[in-house]
């Protein structure tokens, strides 16, 4: 039943009246009477008898369309168990809301739904974590690929052709791919999908945002032809999304691509699940039970015996763990190919640069970055400037004593939206035109953090006559035409330039590296590599300048284009400190009394370690529970059971449960 109460998270038996028998197929939406109310539900299975002596009847079959596939029902149960959540919450993520008009149009066109086979009963125990498995087919050496599936760009990776061959042969290879600079990743994913389809199976590919989805859509259309795949994204709107979902559910298309909404997409004979740039935080679902697309897809590969492809310019610690446990194999280029494809990368904070330019340690645009941009523009090539913050001046401080400027009403940070705009609060939006510093009484403000629009203004003055474009959340550019010009972009919004950028400048590195986050270094390197990958190779004049100290580990990984080394280093440090993914952690957030009540009711594993409390927000606190990976299932079960006891007692204050939260601090 679609009831978000942990103590009701189990199947219920109902009788099917004779008049509803033809329409009441497994996977269909129904309405039932429960506790005197009419509630929505899912018909999971039809059986001949029940252990319960008195049963109520189904009230209504909302639609005979079997939208919930047996495979997805089982996957949803496993995901709910893993994340200490409710099956109803996962099904809400897996199946989009019904759109009656679309169903009516399909029936009018003579396209009748296919009755689903009875869904298997949900397993009592979750499937073993993917990291405990061993791949069936290692990618040990290159293999000849069927001429029908051209390996093309995969030849740059020694084990790349073997990956395609395994997919074409119907095997289940599992790979972690580190993409080269300048790689057309969408074309490579299209190759892998085409190989899977050539083997008579289907594929699901998940990307982070709409821009990546458009690139992959174009690549698949070019390779497979139109109408051979469906796109699933929340941005499509209810009608288009439901139509695409039904096309996949009815088997009209063998391939589904999309944002995280596609991680549960039903595909017949699933042969490949793939995710691009799994470190992007957009892959983490913000709704309960907060599953991550990477983990859902890997679990799905485990359940279906399908291949898996985790790719990106950078590599997460979670992907590195897949390699170190033997669950997946590495697909990387050799050093000679890597050197030929990588731009020339230089930091501004090492000793030689400081000797030439002593001000490089504090300057926002050191001389190396400025001369690189100037020379590139003179060569009639575009320059990309990556700035971590959007806006104009997202943070200001007192010009006299440097005290951060805060709103006198809510204590939120003050910001300037333009050169002539008064300071305004970023939290409550109030204007603080008469601001006076509470420490020294000063009324002048200075920039504490510079945003993309202010950077564009400054560079426009530094390079008069040069076109300056900005790309950010407000306006995202997809491509940049050839010719000289400056492009100022925030991370994730960098457009692709025709022929590649002549230079890429990575500014304000401190804003990324000094964040109080477990993944600060990993996220910084991911953003840098994604931007640097858009530059031309060094033999073609491509240059990257990072305004940071060359001795820092993320900078070293960038200089060598060695995401694998950094990921192994990160995983080793987290294993030593007891942080994910080396350990399993759960976060409990809520009022102190409610969190204490849930922990008291939870029968935690003996080796569980409780950390905290720490302040969360307003009047809430946060507790962390840490266990070895082998005890992850026991931890999730204990927390879900405790939440069920509280909901059965009708506890008024909820506690937010998150297993493997993206942020720990």
Element layout with pairings:
Layout: E1 29-34, E2 37-42, E3 58-63, H1 70-82, H2 87-94, H3 100-108, H4 160-168, E4 174-178, H5 185-198, E5 202-206, H6 210-224, E6 229-232, H7 238-249, E7 255-258, E8 270-276, H8 293-304, E9 307-312, H9 317-324, E10 329-331, H10 335-341, E11 344-347, H11 351-356, H12 367-378, E12 382-386, E13 395-398, E14 414-415, E15 424-425, E16 445-449, H13 452-462, E17 468-471, E18 479-480, E19 485-489, E20 496-497, E21 503-506, H14 509-513, H15 520-532, E22 543-546, H16 553-560, H17 563-577, E23 583-590, H18 592-601, E24 609-615, E25 621-628, H19 632-648, E26 656-659
Give a summary of the structure in a few sentences.
Helix content is about 30%, strand content about 20%. The chain is built from 19 helices and 26 strands. The protein has a 7-stranded parallel beta sheet with strand order 6-7-5-8-9-4-10, sandwiched between helices. It has a 6-stranded parallel beta sheet with strand order 11-22-21-12-19-17, sandwiched between helices. It has a 4-stranded antiparallel beta sheet with strand order 24-25-23-26.
What labels would you give this structure?
665 residues, alpha/beta, GIY-YIG endonuclease, Rossmann fold, 4 domains, 7-stranded parallel β-sheet, 6-stranded parallel β-sheet, 31% helix
